[in-house]
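Quick one - inputs below.
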Amino acid sequence: MTDALSDTWQVILRDLRVRIRMPVFIFMSLFQPILWLLLFTQIFKALGGGAGGLNVWGPDVSYLEGFAPGVIVMTVLFGSAFAGFGTLMDIDAGIMSKMLATPVTRVSIITGRVIAAVTVGVVQAGIVFIVAAIMGVHVATGIPGVLLVFLLVGLLGIGFAAFSNGLALLLRRQETVMAVVNLFTMPLMFMSTTMMPATVNNDGVTVQILPHWLDIARQFNPVDYAVVGVRNLVLPDYYVWSDLWKPLVVLAAFAVVMVVFGTMMFRAKAE
Amino acid sequence: MSVIGTRGLTKIYNGEVRAVDGIDFEVEAGEIFAFLGPNGAGKTTTIKMLNTLILPTSGSATVAGFDVVKHPAEVRRRVGYAAQDVGVDERATGRENLTLYGHFYRLDNRRIRERVKELFELVGLNGYEDKMVSSYSGGMRKRLDLAMGLIHQPQVIFLDEPTTGLDPQTRVHLWDYINKLAKTMGVAVFLTTHYMEEADRLADRIAIIDLGKIRTIGTSDALKKSIGGDVVTLTPPAEKDEERQDFVKRAEAALSGKPFVTETKPSDGQLAVYVKDGAAAIPGIMQIMGSQGIEVKTIAMSRPSLDDVFLKYTGRTIRAQEGTQTTFVQMRRQANRRRNR
Ligand SMILES: Nc1ncnc2c1ncn2[C@@H]1O[C@H](COP(=O)(O)OP(=O)(O)O)[C@@H](O)[C@H]1O
Ligand SMILES: [Mg+2]
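Output:
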């Protein structure tokens, strides 16, 4: 057990060292979410609350405040969904088989990578969070809420980083993995309530915004659980502490299932 | 006591490719043991079974006192490995590469620092500890790769084609380190090669492997002696392939069964004739050729070399395949194979 922890720690250090030496990538992947934050809040400004606004997120909630939680989730999603690339690079460079010839605990090679990817993803989400705060987003639930936000996106990140590793081991080619990851990340985001709530309640009239089938589909979309969970913590009058258990349970289950998938693929396919 | 021992060790890929086909051999502590064979002979597959990277299909192997299937973790702790293609991380420094492996082998920080110092000296890389591996030359990477397999002072080190693709000078250096390992530190060295000279100069004993089978095992001298005399090589004046084949066929027919001829082997449009005493046999051979009207361009006599040994036991020359060894196409193929597993 202590061996597994020590090995995992060494793998994390190695991974983070490589990432820190290429800060360009860390900043490049921050560029997109921040751009979205700036751009979409301008485009959809009229959808938000305030004088003449449509109040999609509720009365007196600006579009920015309702949209920022989704962007924070997205940052972690995109940060972790490519975690499998490092594993593929190790395999192609012959590093993997050399490591496997040592007594290193097998799972540490995957768990270490997943944790490193999520750590970076969460730090990036933190930076996006700060940018959002500067733009005027306040977290209604305060410091405990912020910590819970990180827990939620951390669980989502673990799930996708592990999934990405499993996928990489299954598909073996960097180009294929790239294509598949792109294929699912974008739709997962658009098929959630990242940009629009499912229903809008305006002056007592409830309007269904998401088509019915999408409303059902999002019940199976971990990204949506994270977005809803984070939004509940950020927006005033949204949070109901007792509602938080659902995203937490679903995302924890998602993380566990994907870690099992990733480690199983690793045991089956790494050599 | 032998440090490596195998019994009927076999690997069949995908139910059809008999990559390693029932091999038996033993290696002693402090011995340098070479697997000599052409591309695709099963050398890498053998190493991967011995260092627990893949499971044998059948047969058994014991390494450093432990069965590779039943106690893989014990085996890993006691062996080192430098693969055919280096497995160093070029996005890290040499020291970082070595230190990571020190941790994987459960050494404490102080011991790791000591070993890093010793190993960089051993492989002649001192001064480069904190340089990024991306700035290392091919030879330096190969030496770092070797050092990474040695950090835990293993009883056995597996070196898969340790000098393939290196310039001659670096190759001689590496031979020195390998020799030092075995002779002053008592490490059993199992190496594979397709270079005759490497096997000849470096190895205490050589196993000739072809198509997954060990054809013969012995010291270089013993193998050469097993040919039993000299080799007389007959070359035809013809240039065309068919004519050369025809020459080989006719010459072989004329000479086989003659009392002074031990054996004949065609190779690349030439005929190798194994005889007890070359000097005495040449006039006889010339006379037979003349009486049969077979024109000979050159006739050469040599003490047997490992090439001749290889030819005798496999019916092929290793030279014929050597040219294709490290081509880009082959590297691509290996990368694909890793992927498709
Ligand atoms: N993973 C694999 N799957 C299928 N066939 C393989 C695999 N690895 C090696 N082989 C085949 O097994 C044989 C022996 O290969 P290998 O052990 O790499 O030979 P060598 O190292 O002597 O060149 C070759 O025919 C090769 O194509
Ligand atoms: Mg090989």
